[in-house]
Design goal:
4-stranded antiparallel sheet, Alpha-Beta Plaits, about 100 residues, alpha+beta
């Protein structure tokens, strides 16, 4: 099961996140999402646990728990939605701006 963890302290690293969940069972991966430009944590991450029962127990017990002074949110991750090219966003190229 893929688990979404939010409201994390910016000091939490992948290994910390993995350790939080290993108390409940096997963790196949744990990853803090970072800003692609600064490399700084974005305050959320994902944990993958192969056993659904262990994952559900971890979610139930860790959700709203306090880590480094912050109440974290722990939920089952939702599948990532595909982004379409037609999402009503206009690029500079489409707007006619910048042309001389």
């Amino acid at each position: 099961m893929n688990i979404y963890v939010s409201n994390l302290s910016f000091n939490v690293i992948d290994e910390d996140l993995k350790a939080f969940f290993e108390e409940y069972g096997e963790v196949s991966s744990a990853r803090i999402i970072t800003d692609k430009f600064s490399g700084r944590s974005r305050g959320f991450g994902f944990v993958e646990m192969p056993n659904d029962e262990e994952a559900k127990k971890a979610i139930a017990e860790l959700d709203k728990g306090v880590v480094e002074g912050r109440a974290i949110n722990v939920t089952e991750a939702k599948p990532r939605e595909e982004r379409s090219n037609n999402n009503n966003r206009r690029s500079f190229a489409e707007s006619g701006r910048g042309r001389y």
